[in-house]
Amino acid sequence: xxxxxxxxxxxxxxxxxxxxxxxxxxxxxxxxxxxxxxxxxxxxxxxxxxxxxxxxxxxxxxxxxxxxxxxxxxxxxxxxxxx
Length: 83
Fold this sequence. Notes:
The protein is an alpha+beta fold. The protein has one domain (8-77). The chain is 29% helix and 22% strand. It has one helix spanning 8-31, and strands at residues 58-66, 69-77. The mean pLDDT is 79.
C-alpha cells in the first residue's frame, strides 16, 4: 500500500501491527513463565511526546525503518507473577 499521508487508515494499520507484535511477545513471555496482560494500543504521531506508566513497568521497543521513515512500537508491561 502506498502511503502519502498519516491518515486514519495508516494509524489503524500501525495499531494492528502493534497488536501483532504485542501478541507475539505475550506468547513468548508466556512460554518463559511470565503471564502478561495487554491493553488496546494507542497510536501517537509526533516528533516529540511523553508517556507515563505504572511504576516498575518493563519496557520493550521495536523500531522499524521503511523508505527513510521510522516508527516504533513500545510495549510496557508488569510481570503479574512478580506482583
